[in-house]
Amino acid sequence: MFEILTPAQFLTSPWRNGGGVTHEIAKAEQDGRWLWRLSVAEVASDGPFSHFPGMARILTVIEGAGMVLDTPDGPLAAQPLHPVGFSGETSVVGRLLNGQIRDLNVIYDPLRVRAEVRLWQGEAVQSHDRGMTGLFALSDGVHANGQTVPEGAMVLGHGFTLQGGQGLLLHLDQQSPT
């Protein structure tokens, strides 16, 4: 069972600091807290990141030259199509390298969810049976079980085979409490 979510279905919110916009793709909650949230951000200016206590983040630049994430532990390079992970509690200030960017964000509870993101180059791949598999289409030509996935859309679920095009492949696997 899977669905194809197009940008017209994303929930759009401007940032309080005026530095960008978030397009929420999907989220899962449990006991009144996020398990995970997927979104695309349009970052128009340098500035601080929102804090997400108890959460972890994976950010992948999907458009633009990238940015430097200044943290108390030193800078992190957010280069195009190279996922970078960090704690949602970390104080981060983003510095754009050469104009605005767009990025895909996976925010998740690391005590309850294991998450991974990687660049996918169109090879046939079957979704995981466990957890949630997603693909953010970076190009046309992506197909899920023969259905066309438009550029900028997200395939989300399980029980599908992906072929063609390019995208960011992600997997979210809920962990058993210890």
Record field, number of beta strands: 19
Gap between N and C termini: 29 Å
**CATH architectural designation of the largest domain:** Sandwich
What is the N-to-C order of secondary-structure elements (H for helix, E for strand)?
EEEEEEEEEEEEEEEEEEE
Helical stretch count? Answer: 0
As a percent range, the share of helical residues equals under 10%
Tell me the structural class: mainly beta
CATH homologous superfamily of the largest domain, by name?
Jelly Rolls
User: What is the CATH first-level class name of the largest domain?
Assistant: Mainly Beta
Name the shape in a single word. Answer: globular
User: How many structural domains are formed by the residues?
Assistant: 2
Task: Describe what you observe in this structure.
This protein is an all-beta fold and 178 residues long. The chain contains no helices and 19 strands. It has strands spanning 2-5, 11-14, 20-30, 33-43, 47-48, 56-63, 67-71, 74-78, 84-87, 93-96, 101-108, 113-120, 125-126, 132-137, 142-144, 147-149, 154-157, 161-163, 167-174. A six-stranded antiparallel sheet has the order 2-3-4-11-6-9, with no helix packed on it. Strands 1-17-14-19-12 form a five-stranded antiparallel sheet, with no helix packed on it. The chain has a four-stranded antiparallel sheet with strand order 5-10-7-8, with no helix packed on it. β2 and β3 form a beta hairpin. The radius of gyration is 16 Å and the shape is globular.
